[in-house]
Amino acid sequence: TINSSWPADHIKFNAGSFSISSELSFKPYQQISGISPEDTVLSNSSGYILNLNDNSSVENLCFDGTAANANGISITNKDIISIKNCLFMNQTLSIDIDSSTKTAITNSTFINPSTAIDISGVVSNVSISNCIISTTSIGINGTAGIIKSNYNYFHNTSTPTTGGGTFYIDPVTNITDQTPLFFNNSDNNFYLHPSSNAIESIVKTRTHVLGTVTVNMSPGCFEYYIVTGSITSPLIDPELKTAYKNLSIKLFGETTPPSEVASLMDGRHSDVNFSLIFNGNVVTTSPTVEINSNNTIEYDWVLPPTAIFHQLQIQANLRSYRFNRTPYINQMILSW
């Protein structure tokens, strides 16, 4: 348990949703992590979820406030703290930093807090970079200390930064008033949509003896990633021209994938569409079906009246927005 852990232990939460009834306090030099911000969710209805100690790091967790007075992480009189790849949702205050030096918050996403980050205490020294802060009254409230804000994406935030602290804000790298356009807000899916303005909006240039290197990155806790693939059916060759009526598709479902690839068969955050091919050319393509779970999806594509062919092939086009994961097609039935 956390109470019996030792300084410098790695405290790892497995996948799942965990309701935290009282604040979790940690020892120095501990690393606190989850599987990913979408797989490990810590929620509370009051107070803070985590209280950090010196030389601590937090990563790959989601903090979800379920009531108006719920907060996320508390850091008071501590030194050297790292918070990265975390998702904060629906809190009064996501991160509270008081009189703490060398705190770095990177690649995290803040959704619907009253205040995302509050900084007080003249000795506080906080760096915030590569973050998305969306739909909040106050983004960064720095009443004291030194606050550096670079490569952050502020959206629908009444006051991105405020307070009497010493702010170092790069007006070029901080982006405001553009929607990051998440995949599906209502489903708490905060992967960046393929048409998001935030994709590769971070441009970092470094000059060294061999020349200048420019790197494009995406802000937030989910790095934008996409992989595509397609599979084409054998030739369907009836003796006569046939007027095809519809194509019924089942995604996931009854078929159990082979054990060696089972871990890859995860369809969350992917999509698929289908094309009819005649003489090597695509003649019509279905609407795209977005996949946000691994539940069985049955989709019926009503074909146009012009779908009359002698020889025909069906092509499935799949896209996944998660590394090393793919949806799978269980069944396709073509009727006429």
What are the salient characteristics of this protein?
0% helix; 13-stranded parallel sheet; single chain; mainly beta; 35 strands; 336 residues; 8-stranded parallel sheet; elongated
Verbal overview:
- This protein is an all-beta fold and 336 residues long.
- 0% of the residues lie in helices and 52% in strands.
- It has strands spanning 10-12, 16-19, 24-25, 31-33, 40-44, 50-51, 56-59, 62-65, 71-76, 79-84, 87-89, 93-98, 101-106, 109-111, 115-120, 125-129, 132-142, 146-150, 153-162, 166-169, 175-176, 182-184, 189-192, 202-208, 211-217, 227-232, 242-243, 246-251, 270-278, 281-285, 289-291, 297-302, 308-309, 313-320, 329-335.
- The chain starts with 9 loop residues before the first strand and ends with a strand.
- The model has no long low-confidence stretch (mean pLDDT 88).
